[in-house]
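User: I'm new to structure prediction. If I give you an amino acid sequence, what do you actually give back? Let's try with this one:
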Amino acid sequence: MNDQVNEVNRDKLVADMKTVIVDAEELLKATASAAGDRVVAARAKVEESMKVAKVKIAAAEDAVKDRARAAARATDDYVHAHPWKAVGTAAAVGVIIGMLIGRR
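Assistant: Good question. You get back a string of structure tokens that encode the predicted 3D arrangement of the chain. For your 104 residues, that looks like this:
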């Protein structure tokens, strides 16, 4: 359960970081005509930080995808090893969901 929460948080963080990067890129484009040594230095620093952030986001996305694939693979292996348990579990979940829907 804790791993699922961490994955959701990680997905949210990746999405938020992508938004920040897009906003920062728009800001850089908007200030492209601004002159001055400090502005140029700040732009260069922001551009470098964005490159690093993009690499880290890509790595985080890859990690999430790898964990999802591993979970799917483990589930598939379990179902193949214990098909009747999987069928029974699915039937029980179906009955419970049916009962909950029927109560409305």
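You can read the tokens as a compact description of the fold. Here is one thing that stands out. DSSP finds three helices and no strands in the chain.
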